[in-house]
Write a structure and sequence with these properties.
With 380 residues, this protein is an alpha/beta fold. It folds into three domains: 183 residues, 3-Layer(bba) Sandwich (FAD/NAD(P)-binding domain); 107 residues, 3-Layer(bba) Sandwich (FAD/NAD(P)-binding domain); 63 residues. Helix content is 26%, strand content 25%. The protein has eight helices and 22 strands. It has a five-stranded parallel sheet with strand order 4-3-2-8-19, covered by helices on one side. Strands 10-17-11-12-13 form a five-stranded parallel sheet. The longest helix has 29 residues. The protein is elongated.
């Protein structure tokens, strides 16, 4: 028999692994696909101290525990890289270089990656002084001097957060003195912060150290002069890139940066396709919020499959009248009841009521989720 999963999760970071736990526990046949490291980008974090109930762990260890939890419940984890997808219709198809996977529902939890500038030492010292997340790593630089790269909203706001721990935060800015790319309010607050120091008209030239970051070389863009600056950490805030390149030629809606668009229940623009973790735009991108997304997306997928079972068992390949209505509209129910009576002698196999508020997935499948008055169709 053809191997079709109830749920395939693409990405084995905290979002994907949490989705795997919830999917497997709901007795869905669940597969998790990961092309890189189990645990995702969080696995690169040496210490995690803000995950409730676990006072201190490493990202790698948390990934191991979460993956084992999902596997113990029945989820299968496979190392593979998806290259193309076919997402429309009841059965979704994911293709890697050598294999094809089929599922009734999909969760994309592919995360993001930091925008890399390619500065010498940036990759070599990643996790050993080079960081991309203030909330994750700022406290590890308590009473030490650090450097921040960037002058947009994220860089300035994160720089102020880092200043709660570091003795000095030196922000390297490309522009002339007084010019930042962030909003005016953040700029005013930053200029008042005595722990922040701005290095204007400059760029980072190189990161230097032995076992960890020890200093950086800074180049003045006007004079060309290169100077050394001692520091223990370098934070890059020049943007994150969603891992959605393989989805760009599909009908899945992405924003202008590449995040997958979704609603509050993490439904994407395509029926049966859900989103979890940093690959969607959201207020706080942390391990705990990724895990929460995974749980929500898996439960949404479970509800979707339950509703699609109605389609498979009661509608598909049958002559069925389907009445779409909003349960807040009592007149709509009355209208459909009258239509049911009229159709009783018309060789109809069944008459099914679909409340677009309750049965959102089934309504979306038939493109009726936004109707303003009751509608009746006959599935032949």
């Amino acid at each position: 028999m053809e191997n079709i999963y109830d749920l395939i999760i693409v990405g084995a970071g905290p979002a994907g692994l949490a989705a795997g736990v919830y999917g497997a526990r709901a007795k869905m046949k669940t597969l998790i696909l990961e092309k890189g490291t189990i645990g995702g980008m969080a696995s690169k974090t040496t210490e995690i101290v803000n995950y409730p109930g676990i006072p201190k762990t490493s990202g790698e260890r948390l990934g191991e525990v979460m993956s084992k939890h999902a596997e113990n419940l029945g989820a299968v984890i496979v190392r593979d890289s998806i290259r193309t997808v076919e997402l429309e219709g009841e059965i979704k198809i994911l293709k890697s270089r050598r294999k094809e996977y089929k599922a009734r529902s999909i969760i994309f939890a592919t995360g993001t990656r930091p925008r890399v500038l390619g500065i010498p030492g940036e990759i070599d010292f990643k996790g050993r002084g080079v960081a991309y997340c203030a909330t994750c790593d700022a406290e590890f630089f308590s009473n030490q001097e650090v450097v921040v790269i960037g002058s947009g909203d994220q860089a300035i706001e994160e720089g102020m957060f880092i200043s709660k721990y570091a003795s000095k935060v030196k922000i390297i800015v490309l522009h002339d003195e007084g010019i930042l790319d962030c909003n005016r309010l953040s700029a005013e607050e930053a200029f008042k912060n005595t722990k922040l120091e701005f290095i204007w008209n400059s760029t980072l030239n190189e990161i230097i150290g032995e076992e960890s970051v020890e200093k950086v070389q800074i180049k003045n863009l006007k004079t060309g002069e290169i100077t050394d600056l001692s520091c223990k950490g370098v934070f890059f805030f020049v943007g994150m890139i969603p891992n959605t390149e393989f989805l760009e030629d599909t009908s899945l809606k992405l924003d202008n940066i590449g995040h997958i668009e979704c609603d509050s229940l993490l439904n994407s623009s395509i029926s049966g396709v859900f989103v979890a973790g940093d690959v969607r735009e959201k207020y706080l991108k942390q391990v705990i919020t990724a895990a929460a997304d995974g749980a929500i997306a898996a439960v949404s997928a479970e509800r979707y499959l339950e509703e699609m079972n109605i389609y498979t068992n009661r509608i598909k390949d049958k002559k069925v009248a389907i009445g779409f209505w909003n349960s807040l509209d009592s007149d709509g129910l009355k209208y459909l009841s009258e239509k049911e009576s009229e159709l009783k002698n018309n060789s109809i196999d069944d008459f099914i009521y679909v409340d677009i508020r309750k049965n959102k997935h089934l309504a979306k499948f038939f493109d009726k989720e936004n109707i303003t008055c009751p509608e009746l169709i006959i599935n032949k």
